[in-house]
Amino acid sequence: MTIGLIGKKIGMTREFFDSGTSIPVTVLFVEKGRIIDVIKKEQRGYDAIRVGFGKIKNSKLTKQMRGVFSKKKTEPKKFLKEFRVDNISEFKEGNEIGLELFKDQKFVDVSAKTIGKGFAGVMKRYNFSGGRASHGVSVSHRAHGSTGQNQDPGKVFKGKKMAGHMGDKMRTIQNLEIIKSEQESSLIFIKGSIPGSKNSYVLIQKPSKKIERKTTLEKTNRIVTKDSKKEQKTENIKK
Q1: How much is the pLDDT for 229?
Q2: pLDDT digits (tens, 9 = 90+) for 38-82
Q3: Does 223 score more than 70 pLDDT?
Q4: Is 45 in contact with 51 (CB distance < 8 Å)?
Q5: Which residues contact 59 (CB under 8 A, 6 or more apart)?
Q6: SS3 sequence, the chain?
Q7: How far apart are CA 138 and CA 197, in angstroms?
Q8: Angstrom distance (rounded) from CA 46 to CA 31
Q9: What is the pLDDT of residues 104-113, one digit of tens each?
């Protein structure tokens, strides 16, 4: 797991480029995380850091966690997340990690809990087409059809698409583009939608896969330069 930050989902808006193209973005508020503990290879068999995110009242902590934070002499944190690192010497207890982590980054992976939809049928949950609306069909318009087999194997296989609890699961969307980040206001603008509802917490990490893809800004600049070249050609022809 690469080092990441925990942000709060504020909502969605749009960003406009100079070319006139508008892009839907999700705005995340990312507070600085504090390194609570540095775990060395001798202790646990791997190098890692434990980082604390978010504010929480001391009264809301358990007695054990109060002891942890008082021992480390830091303010209490809402979330504690462990990240494995290669160069443990670069990190020290008490240091802070902020949006500068993604300074040279164009894409990120985002993990969050999806919005819970409760108990849902197969048409909503798996996009089933449903039964016929007429000609002898009654009651089973939105039913999923046959469930299992005969005496052999005499059971319903795991993973069978049926009605059930929809949403409220951890999901990761990879290679989402960073449109811009404002370190002063601790805001990061990510292209497109992100799992979770407003005011939910999101884990932002460096991409796990190496991709060669052009950003939206690079694409728009390319189109603008192409258009300007065409205009110059037409002007030269007219002359």
Answers
A1: 57
A2: 999 898 899 999 999 999 999 999 999 999 999 988 899 999 999
A3: no
A4: no
A5: none
A6: CCCEEEEEEEEEEEEECCCCCEEEEEEEEECCEEEEEEECHHHHCCCEEEEEEEECCHHHCCHHHHHHHHHHCCCCEEEEEEEECCCHHHCCCCCEECHHHHCCCCEEEEEEECCCCEEECHHHHHCCCCCCCCCCCCCCCCCCCCCCCECCECCCCCCCCCCEEECCCEEEEEEEEEEEEECCCCEEEEECCCCCCCCCEEEEECCCCCCCCCCHHHHHHHHHHHHHHHHHHHHHHHC
A7: 37
A8: 27
A9: 889 999 999 9
| Domain locations in the chain as residue ranges | 117-143+161-167
Q: Using omega within 30 degrees of 0 as the cis cutoff, is the peptide bond preceding 153 cis?
A: yes
Q: How far apart are CA 11 and CA 29, in angstroms?
A: 10
Question: Can you tell me the distance from the alpha carbon of 157 to that of 154, in angstroms, rounded to the nearest whole number?
Answer: 9
Under the banding of pLDDT at 50, 70 and 90, the label for residue 160 is: very high
For 117, the token pair is 């939809």
CA 173 to CA 12: how far, in whole Å?
Answer: 16
